[in-house]
Amino acid sequence: xxxxxxxxxxxxxxxxxxxxxxxxxxxxxxxxxxxxxxxxxxxxxxxxxxxxxxxxxxxxxxxxxxxxxxxxxxxxxxxxxxxxxxxxxxxxxxxxxxxxxxxxxxxxxxxxxxxxxxxxxxxxxxxxxxxxxxxxxxxxxxxxxxxxxxxxxxxxxxxxxxxxxxxxxxxxxxxxxxxxxxxxxxxxxxxxxxxxxxxxxxxxxxxxxxxxxxxxxxxxxxxxxxxxxxxxxxxxxxxxxxxxxxxxxxxxxxxxxxxxxxxxxxxxxxxxxxxxxxxxxxxxxxxxxxxxxxxxxxxxxxxxxxxxxxxxxxxxxxxxxxxxxxxxxxxxxx
Length: 334
Description:
The protein has 334 residues and is of the alpha/beta class. It has helices at 14-27, 39-46, 51-71, 106-120, 146-154, 167-178, 188-196, 217-226, 264-274, 284-297, 308-329, and strands at 2-3, 74-81, 86-92, 126-132, 136-143, 200-206, 231-236, 242-243, 258-259, 278-281, 300-306. It is 43% helix and 18% strand. α4 (106-120) runs antiparallel to α5 (146-154) and α4 (106-120) runs parallel beside α10. The radius of gyration is 32 Å and the shape is elongated.
């Protein structure tokens, strides 16, 4: 915790001063003696539980301390929204994404989780969307118009097909879309500093092994690593997932169900190579949870947020409680 006006913490000296004044007044001899012949009257005046007498003053002192902290304008370290962050969503739309081992389908669950991500990510973050099967295609360029990205999510089924899974090419396309591009002759270290300073990250979802593409998955990961862009990968699906090709008309008739297990090892290697994080999602709930977690994390950077109003609220609440308790426990003359 830090403070905008640390010198005002000296006002906390008022707390022990107020405590000392209260104790002095409590122990000071009474100026006038009063005689009670009726012990019941004396008991009602003195009160039954002596410790309750000190509870209200203790709450008052805590309220005073909270208000003194508020005067000093406290701040706490946290993640704050970055105005220069970019997140590229990369979603596999190959034919295996029509498997329904993840309800309603893998693609449907991915669309719903991506919408959850957009609800969590700061509005100032630029979000782009790439759909890939046998080759990557830009569904939405990086933009702060998250409604546009949502609309693009609804059309992902138009990109789907049976052209294979090009993981490496999709990673390279995401790096290119995120920018900045490495100028000719520039040194890699300088380029990585420039790229990482833009707080760019890639959120990559796939449900299968690479079957097509010019680049191998780790070659695509190396491009992201060189650009200083972490890749957060999600392996979607269950090991026993199958695709019923009969639902696609004449395609695959007579072949029966086709096994479509995910490839968590490759996606885990991609995340480790780029400094990202790997998630394994075997159902819609775990997928949505992963995207919700990343939405609350990506697009943010370390910073400080002021918590003055929290201390003011605590102080006001304690003052109110002290006043009510004092009214309930103060001696009452019959």
